[in-house]
Amino acid sequence: MSEYQYYEFLAVDRPLTAAEQAEVRQLSTRARITATSFTNEYHWGNFRGDPRVMMRRYYDAHLYLANWGTHQIMLRLPRTLLSPKIAEQYGVDGHVGVTATPESVILDLISEDDSGEWVEGAEDSLSAIVGVRSELAAGDLRALYLAWLSAYGGWEWDEDAFGEDDEDEREPPVPAGLGSLTAPQRALADFLRVDPDLLAVAAQASPELPEAKEDPGALAAHIAGLPGGEKDRLLMLVGRDQAARAKMELLRGLRGDPDEGRVARPGRTVADLLDAAAELRMERRRQAEAQAAAREALRERQREAARQRHLDQLAKDPEAAWAEAGKLIGTKVPARYDEAVTLLADLRELARSDGQAGEFERRFAALREEHLRKPSLIARFDRAGLTA
Questions:
Q1: Residue 37 and residue 1: Cα distance in Å, rounded?
Q2: What is the pLDDT of residues 323-359, one digit of tens each?
Q3: Model's pTM, two decimal places?
Q4: Is 259 a residue whose pLDDT tops 60?
Q5: How many Å apart are CA 7 and CA 64, to the nearest integer?
Q6: Which residues of 100-118 are buried (b: 16+ CB within 10 A; e: fewer)?
Q7: Rounded to whole angstroms, how far apart are CA atoms 188 and 359?
Q8: Cα 147–151–156 angle (5° rounding)?
Q9: pLDDT in the model for residue 242
Q10: Under a CB-based contact definition with an 8 Å cutoff, are residues 121 and 114 in contact?
């Protein structure tokens, strides 16, 4: 396959009307289009539409990937649910884009990897990732931090991704709960190729998530205190088939906006994070190597113990072993020759440990002389170092 591109769009808050579906159909005759989705793939050529325009007009989520290494996720949220000012704290040119319209905020999250390594099943990721949209709407900014982390994490495999000045760039506010990501956040981290070691380092500055408690009384009080015009607006959203958005806005009003000053101390620099991740990676490798060495040492001790038990058993009746070796050689079967050579090598080792090496050499020389006309056997003796 010389070229492959995959496009997928989802309408979450409101399904497309028949007229809107007809409009997007003009962009592709082969796309699979429903009231809530648009999917197409290309093995040659390019999509005629502009994903950014489609996101502004029709859709709430978009996934794009190409076999040259581009992974892209776009999410659209109402401005009432995600402040552009908050989102822009996590912006990184070319990787984490934030576009504000009068009604919406559109996030554009991109990961590039030109190594040629294809991620199996990446086309199926949007359904797993789209849940981060409602999490962002609820004030959970972990997805934005993951995108920021992915951007600078790309420096690990592309040294030209950023300039030296970017090393001193400080991280944005660190959300709570980076050490316990939700399933959609894990799917996003995988799709954006977030390095696990870099994430582990970043999570060290992330507090635990506060325990979420449902309080029907607080929700009822919040609804009762809403101005009449605000209640009418939320009901209008429900009437326009945007009940999911109405619910998110209602709950956001109850919970309030995310705390922009989430981290009291100055954020770590990009260099701090990358260096710490590299050290963590090296330490993990050192531990893995030490554990592998310990396992191998244990196996070696076990092999030595088994070997010693075998020699002890052989020492009980070495004459029987000599007789067995002669019997195996007498079969004139090459596979049996191998067994005989192994047995004779064991007898040599036993003789050396007992101070009887000379006696072994005498008996073996006689045995070898007896079978000089068996070249296959003699060759096996030579390979095993059994020489007269």
A1: 26
A2: 999 999 999 888 899 999 999 999 999 999 989 999 9
A3: 0.72
A4: no
A5: 5
A6: eeeebbbbbbbbbeeeeee
A7: 73
A8: 135
A9: 67
A10: no
